[in-house]
Amino acid sequence: MRKWTRRAVIGAGSLLGGGLVLGVGGVVLAPNRLRIRPDDVTEGPHLTTWVRITPDNQVVAIVPHCEMGQGAIVGLAMMLAEELEADFESVRIEEAPAVDEFANGYILRGFAAEAGIGVPQWLTRAVDYATFKVAALGDMQLTGGSTSTRATGVYGMRVAGAAAREMLIGAAAARFGVPGTELSARGSRILHEPSGRTASYGELASEAARIRPPARPWLKPRSEFRLVGTSQPRPDLPGKVNGSAEYGIDVALPDMLVAAIAQAPVPGGTLDSVDASLAESMPGVRKVVALENAVAVVADGYWQATEALAALEPKFGDAGRGSVSSADILGEHAAALDRLGAAPGAPADALNVAAEYSVPYLAHASLEPMAATARVANGRCEVWAGTQDPLNARRVAAEAAGLEPDDVAMHNLHSGGSFGRRLPGGFDYVAQAVEIAKSLEPRPVKLIWSREQDMQHDYYRDVVLMRMQAALGADGRPVSWSSRFTGMPFMDTMAAEPFYPVGESDLQVAEPPVHLRTGSWRSVAWSQHVFFMESFIDELAHAAGVDPLAYRRRLLANEPRHLAVLERAAAMAGWGGALPPGRARGVAIAECFGSIIAEVAEISLSASGDIRVHSVDAAVDCGYTVNPNQARAQIEGGIVFGLSAALYQEITVRDGAVVQRSFPDYGMIRLATAPRIRVDFIDSDAELGGLGEPGVPPVAPAVANALFSLTGERLRTLPLRPAAAALSPA
Amino acid sequence: MRYHDPRPVERRSNAPGSPAIISLTLNGRPVELDVAPETPLLWVIREQAGLTGTKFGCGIGACGACTVHIDGTARRSCVVPLSAVAGRSVTTIEATASATMQSIRQAWLEHQVPQCGYCQSGMIMAVAALLESNPRPSDEQIDSAVTNLCRCGTYERIRRAVHSAAERLGVTNA
């Protein structure tokens, strides 16, 4: 655990009025890492990244990540406090401001270096990868890819905490005139046991700041962790149970106006014409603003803006795509696969199994619709919004305002869910707010998308078509494997790569047709490929006449971590044990974002033939857990997220536009349909894995496999619609 | 599945300068509002009263993020026109006084229920109305009474927290 795996630069600085500030980057960062930017920080001139120790003995963890529900910031502060030996009760957590000094592009550089490619794979859907430059990554302050804990926590927070501890010990050694080896740190104090002398971190901080930061601070072995591994509550939750937490949509400023927007229904379409006269005569309406591909109404209040927007009759172009339907799109996917050519033939003596799978477009449908507030005045721009990358959003705002990023102040607020929607590439709502505010200068304008706009103008999880083929030898094991699928070359191929021993494997990817714009959706490529792979493995098990769990065990005999999660999940679910009549179980396993997870679903069919999921048991190996209760929450949430997609969700296209408009036609799990969920973690002591996304992928195949076990019906497309349900009245 | 259009069929004829003062009680305090009477209560609460704990999720009463109490009953404020609450009592998530709300908040923190938290105001208001009428609901009763959406998937914790809150209340009331 003490292995120093990356080069780092640690820098220290003094606080105005005394105290220590410390920054560290996972890889070499900007030389101005410690530059003081007095006007960027509301609490006055101070500071840099990661940790600040004030003279009154308060430790402040400064976290360069966004809070959108995942609660990772607590774990990050815990990792800092663990190494620092800080009294966690007195640790305060601050979200870093959106300024360059708090960029976390090191995450991406680290990942890019690991993968040996230019663009981190899990991000490729979120960016215009044709023009993407790695050089731009340093300006990111990104929360995504299940990376906060395993990257910032491991390479940033722990190291910063350990370095600060060594510097504080050095300061105490000088003050007491004793060797540092006689000193110990605990509870935000340094103790000299032989003499009984102690000093608080706050007392030592200014002196510590003058000590050169250690290049390689000593990191605790896991056996010495006291805080990491305990469940700590989230500091943001009290505000989330009394209505005081401020989300992007909640911003209120003096003289603020509110805008509603209607965007071109067909992607690529532009605003041809709009008659603003009627709308502008309606109560409270200030202005109708024509944008390139949208029209907005700005009014005193949202309802007035919405009413006036409904009175507009904008004419939008359709970019020549106004007749495209979902069937056309799937047909183009099939044609793209046809062009790849046939899969290699199977050996004559093998049992050949082949199947075609697909998944539809999916919307993120965060409960807070896209919203952003902007004020443009006197050559400056200020923006308030919830995003997954405030630095990148700031750049988008600057472009829209025609200003330099330094002239834009970005205030990142809580997000009412993100799930990939608020990643770089998806800041259309920020750009729109700025453009609208430009025409109302100097008044601030809050743009709120309606649910319908949010549903119909997402960056969707793409449609994917998959053709799989495997040949089984006499012992039932695969001797060859081929898959042909549409998707992005890097990431989808990574997700489609079997971790099972499958003999000769041949994976080929075809660029998908482009219609709706696409983006990262929680668990990214694994959301589809685990469904394909784990359904198909189940097909192979049945073809071989072996119990699906036993089949996986047999294939994964040399993969102890995979075996362990499989066996734990199976034991939790009572695999093989008796079930009430009409029920069945299914299993699936995934390896993604550095973690391994198995899930077992138990299902039945309702009287109307719909799938009812009674329970999901999940066993996870993410190395170890930092904050176990929040770790569990992420897996629970991932399972529900994946289940909504497995059972209900599908974005379809008709006449070039998205058909679905709101929650009634984009279904979600509710209390009445939410399964019992049990989550268990296996402590393998491996490198930390991510948790925000791995809960999602296995649930769809686990349910599909359970359905096959129950009825013999193999469903190869999502959402899962059993034949019985199709016959019953809706 | 049918889609319910959020837009009222009849357009309002709101001549500017024809104020309609509407009086109601908001979180125990009398308020007078000079707002078009068909304005959804949600936007009056958020924009006129400045209470942003009540959230906008869909505008058609489908998600429940905007749930408030009207005379003690849970209602989705995005589909209630202001005129419908004239003279009535409206309670939002910001109200702190009742033992029920206190118990629910404590249980929500004990179980660390919220993730993004955006749905939780409405969720808590729906649960508060349930517990006021049914102090010890079964799982089935919780499931059928609380139909709000949580995109983060906190349902399992919500169920457990409702039972915890009910237990706390039972002790408080005993």
As a whole number of angstroms, the C-alpha radius of gyration of chain B is 17 Å
Which secondary-structure class do the elements of chain A indicate? alpha+beta
Global outline of chain B: globular
Order of helices and strands of chain B: EEHEEEHHHH
Helix share bin of chain A: 25-40%
Specify the oligomeric state. heterodimer
General shape of chain A: flat
Report the major sheet of chain A: 7 strands, mixed
Strand content of chain A: 15-25%
Number of helices of chain B: 5
Task: Summarize the helices and strands and which ones pair or pack.
The complex is a heterodimer of chains A (730) and B (174).
Chain A: E1 9-14, E2 20-25, E3 50-53, E4 59-63, H1 72-84, E5 91-95, H2 105-115, H3 148-176, E6 183-186, E7 189-192, E8 197-200, H4 201-208, H5 237-241, E9 257-263, E10 271-273, H6 277-280, E11 285-290, E12 294-299, H7 302-311, E13 315-316, H8 326-340, E14 351-359, E15 371-377, E16 380-385, H9 390-401, E17 408-412, H10 428-438, E18 445-448, H11 451-456, E19 464-472, E20 478-486, H12 489-496, E21 504-510, H13 526-544, H14 548-555, H15 560-573, E22 583-592, E23 595-605, E24 611-621, H16 628-647, E25 653-654, E26 657-658, E27 676-681, H17 699-711, H18 723-727
Parallel strand pairs in A: 4-5, 9-18, 16-17, 20-21, 24-27
Antiparallel strand pairs in A: 1-2, 2-3, 3-4, 6-7, 7-8, 9-12, 10-13, 11-12, 14-19, 15-16, 15-18, 19-20, 22-23, 23-24, 25-26
Chain B: E1 21-26, E2 29-34, H1 41-48, E3 67-70, E4 73-76, E5 89-91, H2 99-110, H3 120-133, H4 139-145, H5 155-173
Parallel strand pairs in B: 1-5
Antiparallel strand pairs in B: 1-2, 3-4, 3-5
